[in-house]
Amino acid sequence: xxxxxxxxxxxxxxxxxxxxxxxxxxxxxxxxxxxxxxxxxxxxxxxxxxxxxxxxxxxxxxxxxxxxxxxxxxxxxxxxxxxxxxxxxxxxxxxxxxxxxxxxxxxxxxxxxxxxxxxxxxxxxxxxxxxxxxxxxxxxxxxxxxxxxxxxxxxxxxxxxxxxxxxxxxxxxxxxxxxxxxxxxxxxxxxxxxxxxxxxxxxxxxxxxxxxxxxxxxxxxxxxxxxxxxxxxxxxxxxxxxxxx
Length: 245
Fold this sequence. Notes:
Layout: E1 2-13, E2 16-27, E3 31-36, H1 42-50, E4 57-62, E5 74-77, H2 92-97, H3 101-104, H4 112-124, H5 140-153, E6 158-162, H6 170-187, E7 190-194, H7 198-201, E8 207-213, E9 219-225, H8 227-243
Parallel strand pairs: 3-7, 3-8, 5-6, 6-7
Antiparallel strand pairs: 1-2, 1-4, 8-9
C-alpha cells in the first residue's frame, strides 16, 4: 500500500529553486533510504513531504489509512532531536512513556499494555537498564537511542527519520538498521530514512533514493535499486530465460 506519493515537486528558497521536479514513493512493508551529497536538500525534501515546508508546485500525498484501514500513524525523527540539556527533568522511562499519550489521550491513565510497549522499545535500543536515569545525564548516543525508543513506543505505521544514527557507534547503528528492516518486513511498517552513508545500511534497505545535481545545478531524484534487489531481479531474468528454452 502506498503511504507516500510525491510527484513533480519543486521547492524554492526565496526565489532560488532548490528541488525541481522531484518524484518518489514509499510503500508499506519497505525500508527506503534517502541519500545525497552535503547540501543536497535531503532534509528540505523530508520537511516538504511532511508539510512543514510548502512546495512551489507538484503534489504530496500521504495516505490517511494504514493497511488495516485504520488512521495512519506517522513518526518523524528530525536531526539533533537528542540535544537535551543536563537539566532536562524527565527520566528515560517517563520520556518514552510520553510517546504513548497520542494513542491513549493525554488525560487517560497508562495501562499494562502501554508499559509493555515502553519496555519493548527500550530493550530494542539497549536502554532498559537506564530507565530510571534522567535524560540529561546520558551521552549523546544514549539520548539518541532513547528518542528512537519513544518513537517506537508510539507504534507508528510510517517512520520518517533524518539521520537517526548520529552519535551512535557502529554496533548500535547496525542494530538499529536491523530493527527498522524487521519493522518493515515483519510488521508491514514503512520506513523513509535520510542517511549520509548508504554503504553502511545497504544490507538492510530495500531501495535507495538519491538526490543528485543535474547540469543546471538543481537536485534531481534518482530511485536506485540496492545491490541485493538487483541480484534478485537478475536471478528472475535468468530463471525466465531458462524457462523459455
